Amino acid sequence: MSQTLLVFAVVAFIGIATPGPTVLLALSNGSRYGVRASLPGMVGAVLSDFVLISAVALGLGALLAASEFWFSAVKWVGVAYLAWLGVRMLRSRGALTLPADDAAATGRTASRKSIFLRSFLVAVTNPKGYLFFSAFLPQFIATSEPQVPQYLALAVVFGSIDFLVMLAYAAAGAQAIRALRANGVLWLDRLCGGVLLALAGSLALYRRNA
Q1: What is the C-alpha separation between 210 and 191, in angstroms, rounded?
Q2: At 209, is the secondary structure helix, strand, or coil?
Q3: pLDDT tens across 163-210, in order?
Q4: Which residues have C-beta within 8 Å of that of residue 141, sequence separation ≥ 6?
Q5: Is residue 127 part of a domain?
Q6: Burial 169-188, CB ≥16 within 10 A → b, else e
């Protein structure tokens, strides 16, 4: 099992490190509020990993793959939420709380709850995540052994890597803003907003048999 987890960790890292919605949010949060105030968003994203993997273990991924209705329902909720986040970032005025002011950042600019929910919801409303885990995880599951402990181990490994990658992106965002200051926040928000809108468009065109 240890060798299987090592292979899984390498493949998972490659997939996670490729910028997606939760990673972009970590980058944006790090630039706006600093690393410490961005932690609730990372926790939300990791919790969504456990939700997605649990759902796949219970068969929800197979349901979405088989049902056009439920796949479309989840997909369009995800499209709408990604687009909403993208538009909000594009309309940002670049208001800045420097990372050095981490202790006060959450209270002045965004609540822990809102930072948490953005990252959590952007993942659990993306049907590609369910289909990805449905295709990906069974390759690392030994059907001759109890499956619950195996799914739990894969979830812990995936969530840990996800957290570390987001932490690195948040730190990169915080360091970049120390150099770029307020104008940098504006352009970073616009960049992340544009990418989120592009991801929303990509998800809108996504099909179950893709």
Answers
A1: 27
A2: coil
A3: 999 999 999 888 877 666 555 566 767 777 787 788 778 767 766 555
A4: 147, 150, 151, 154
A5: yes
A6: bbbebbebbeeeeeebbeeb
Q: Which domain holds residue 50?
A: 2-205
φ, ψ of residue 87 in degrees (nearest 5):
-65, -40
For residues 25 and 196, give the distance between their C-alpha atoms in angstroms, rounded to a whole number. 9
CB 134 within 8 A of CB 62: yes
Asked, for residue 210, whether it belongs to a domain, the answer is no
124 in any annotated domain: yes
Distance (Å, whole) CA 192 – CA 176: 14
Q: Measured between alpha carbons, how far is residue 197 from residues 48, 159, 187 in Å?
A: 21, 25, 15
The answer to whether residue 129 is domain-embedded is: yes
Q: Please say whether the beta carbons of 33 and 204 come within 8 A.
A: no
Separation of alpha carbons 191 and 202, rounded Å: 16
Q: How many domains does the chain have?
A: 1
* Both tokens assigned to 21: 């919605």
Owner of token pair 């002045």: 108
pLDDT tens for residues 89-120? 777 665 444 444 444 444 445 688 999 999 99
In sequence order, what are the residues at sequence separation of 6 or more whose Cβ sits closer than 8 angstroms to the Cβ of residue 12? 157, 158, 161, 162
